[in-house]
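Hey, I'm writing a tutorial for new members on how sequence and structure tokens pair up, and I'd like a real worked example in the thread rather than a made-up one. If someone can provide the structure for the chain below, I'll link this post from the tutorial.
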Amino acid sequence: MDQYIGRLLDNRYEILEVIGTGGMAVVYKARCHRLNRLVAIKILKDEFAGDEEFRRRFHAEGEAVAMLSHPNIVQVYDVSTTDNANYIVMELIDGISLKQYMEKKGVLNWKETLHFAMQIAKGLEHAHSRGIVHRDIKPHNVMVLKNGSVKVMDFGIARVMNKSNTLTKEALGSVHYISPEQAKGGHTDNRSDLYSLSVVMYEMMTGRPPYDGESAVAVAIQHINGGAPMPSTLNPNIPGGLEQIIMKGMALDVRDRYVSATEMLQDMEEFRKNPAILFDYHTVLDDATRAIPSAVQPRTTAERKAQAKTGARTSTGSVRLHQNATGNIPKRSTGTVPVNTAGRDADSIRRAQQRRREQELKKEQKREEERSRVATTAIVICSGVAVIAIIVFLVALFNGALLNQEKDLVEVPYLEGQMYTEALAAEYSDFVIRLQPQQYSDIYAEGQIMQQTPVGGSKIQKGSDIWITISMGPEPPEKYMDNFIDIDAEQAESVLVGQGFYVLTRQETSYVYRAGQVTRTDPAAGTKLTEGQTVYLYVSTGPDIVQGKVPYVVGMDIDTAKIVLEQLGFTNVRAEAVESLKPLNEVVYQSVEKDTEIDVTSEIIIHYSEGAASVETEPTGNGGDVVTQEVTFTLPSRDADYTLGICISGTTEVLAAESVPAGTTSITVELTGNGTMWYDLYIDGVFEREEKVEFTDG
């Protein structure tokens, strides 16, 4: 049995079970008795706990990471040493690692890849802003929660793990994601994390890391040499802009990568808004034509001396050039010749220096006076605040505000012996009822509450948790899998753990079961189970709703419009041919306004022209008396006011320009014509659609 199971660290953390094992530490599930909550505790293995320098850096990094607070970073609560156990207390995550998610789903689509990558980058952005570099970004250190969000683990701990640059078997899990400078044992900074994030994106999009080999050293050498296959050669469905982002992040030279996570996020956001975008920077995609800077810095003593004399920038050695848009090689800047100051008059120089010293002395005197005024003002303000605080305290004391805190305490109900129902939480709304793993009992019947914490009759703060254990009745001689489908996952897990089984949960989308409900189990209901068997619970995350921004396809050829929509994920497109004077197959109408974000499974209706030959009438009318009549046009609802322009089809003359208030869905205007006529509608100067109007006498 594990030496820590059942132990109480610092008279506070009760170790319950092992939930993970790594190369450097073991992670346990534990209960914090002070705050009555479940936490995760990472305890250093004995072979590393004996290294004093390792322990010192472990605690220093842990304390620094504890100051981080971001929704995409696993929160660190405490760092401590007790009974020769060096440990870090962290937030307990209910989810699976990104590595497990990728193994389950295989190659991810670009929307999922971008969704996860942006969250990881936001976590890195926060950490880097606090001076903390992760140094071990990999799918194993990213947790995927049930709601689709992700949290990055082990910030700062990875820095300690890289104390040795030797690539051993323990490093094999990380070496697939380390940067070239890490592989060479060189200096690492925030750009090393961005390289690793790009490798993770590469793997999400292709199903494999860019480099692999029989040993950690072989993989590291590949990182140092570069030359990974382009992601699009492994998955042709990768959008060009996303491939550029990945390859820029994976550049061998740190100077060619993104400067910061913020810069990388900006490109990700641009791509999210327009998946068809292609960036104009050079990446490994076109490494052979990488541009040299317009001003090359001197690299040798001779160059520096020459530049000091002439002001001209020189270049020696091998430098790669590329042609610009005109086909010419960019010219280097020649600089200017510095003015020779050797002949200045010595007395003039001394006088100038004396004037500068006098000016500095006056400035220092002004700063001292300003600091004195600020200090006096601060003392006056602090004194006033102190007096006010004392007055408020005394008033509160005499009014009993400080003496009546016990009024917020409520008595814990006696729940032991009651039958548990889902209505229990509503019945005791002053508390949060939480479930412990259920247990067998020869005393309590199945469904009865056999234990509660805190005990009945004690007083606690209103809104506190009450943990209850539900009896499963006497233990049966043989155990069979119950039917947990449509049952809350937390309740199902409580039952199975109480029966002595090891439970693993997996998330999957479902249009039948609400989020948090069990959709299926493995093994299935009715299967005979053995002691300690692993049981998989598949839990619904709800419908797989993916949002997308609708592009503007009016004016495109119908086939092109369909391709554009499908590439952006909109597969429910209904195309209808209509009479129109527009060219054959040109799209004249779309049912969803451009830039509207909708579920990609929603229906989009587009109308395309049957060609002018299908229209029996001319745009100028086809006989009959000229009449003036009111015509009503349906309009898309918009959040802001706009101008509706109406023209006869094929002409540019504006017959009417109506101001349309926000939210308006129809408008009536007076038009003059005869027979059947066609009109073009424009919204703020942008063509919307073509409309046919029948003019009738009387």
